[in-house]
Amino acid sequence: MPQPNVVLLAIDTLRPDHLGCHAYGKNTSPNMDALAAESVVFEQAIAAGIPTMPSFTTMLTGLHPFRHGIVAHIGEKQRVAARVQTLPQLAQKAGWTTIGIDNLVIQGGGKGSWFARGFDHYSGFLYAPFTNQSEQLIERAIQFVDEQDKATPFFLYCHLWDPHTPYGPPPPFDTMHYEPGSAEHELAEVIALAPDYYKAFLGEMKCEHPDDYAAYVALYDGEISYVDVQVGRLIAHLKQANLWDNTLFVLMSDHGEAFGAGEIHFDHHGLYDAVTRVALMARVPGTLPSRTQALVSTEDLLPTLAALCGWELPTSYALTGQSFASALSGEEFVGRERVFCIESSRQASMAIRTRKWKLIQPIMEDARGKPLPHLHGTPRDPALLLFDLENDPHEKYNLAKTHPEVREALRVELLAWHANEIALRGGHDPIKENGLSLSYEVFMSRLRARHQK
Length: 453
Known about the structure:
The chain has helices spanning 30-36, 52-61, 65-68, 87-93, 133-147, 187-193, 195-203, 213-240, 273-276, 301-309, 404-424, 430-434, 440-452; strands spanning 5-11, 40-46, 49-50, 97-102, 121-124, 154-160, 247-253, 258-259, 265-267, 277-278, 280-283, 290-297, 339-343, 349-353, 357-362, 385-388. It is α/β, with parallel strands linked by helices. It has 2 domains: 5-329, Alkaline Phosphatase, subunit A; 339-452, Arylsulfatase, C-terminal domain (2-Layer Sandwich), CATH 3.30.1120.10. Strand 13 (339-343) and strand 14 form a beta hairpin.
């Protein structure tokens, strides 16, 4: 059998539970559902770091954010060490033609240069909401595929930004999922949480029913449906080009989106499953489709693809990722016992998640003792959060006080993991030393500047 082509289609901000293949009540994703029917689908795939920059860096390096150092949206001095190898570098060294369609070098003004490592062809773009950009990017992907020598396998990585905020899918997707008054939240109550923030944030979106919370969720779902059409276009082209039977196709997201979790709305912060649980499905030629509850991390993608394709892993440092290739080969797969998660872009937290439990530890101050507030700019609640994910999958009931033994056991384990990671970094904590990379004041100034244009 020839070496397989590999497609990694990454969809930003995609909540798996808003897809039909994950039992969503609206028909948002017929093409992704069809892909899922041919794939191994992971029900509990978790982002080790959020939001976009740390998550994608982890996906492409097989390293936890504490190991590669990108724990937030990047600053001026944060870089991934030159010795760290990325997925396209592994593929390139093994003889694959590598193609990247991504914005994380250009969007960061060149600061995210490691995202271009290892690509024979890197096609950059600036994220442009309220356009048909995903359609244009899939057209680029199709053109690159058509240009390849069929005798040489290719690795194609394509990063689509729908359904990221601000939501604004083109017609008819902008209204196709709207059901008036169907949301569990009232928009007035949400705005009251942080009036300046939400008025400016929602003011960017072209919503026909701006007083109805459900209308904004419908815009998000409409963006999923729009990008779903583009997923279908790429798959259809691979089939028409007689490439599908020898293509390993992975679709995944970097994080989800919060619609009320932790009193966070229309954004992707807080280490709740609404944000940290990611879509992950992998279609492997010759493997029967299945679904698994095994716990996996975004760290695990690199060693998995390397194992499936025979790519040589780096030897000068240890990966934190663990291969789930056996799950894609029809073998028994248990998965991880736990995933450690972090955030420090708009607020700072760390968490430990098992299949049953999650403990979230707010980080209250930086290394200089400066308070690290909630993303709304208000003081952070220091209370530990403990959730029983089996009985409370939407994380509505904090059991930290009623289950002290579970809370303390997880807290001790989380703190021990954190202390070990800091020790491996020579005593440096990148969250506390760098603070928030996108504070409330900075974020609001950006919003106001966009409104003045």
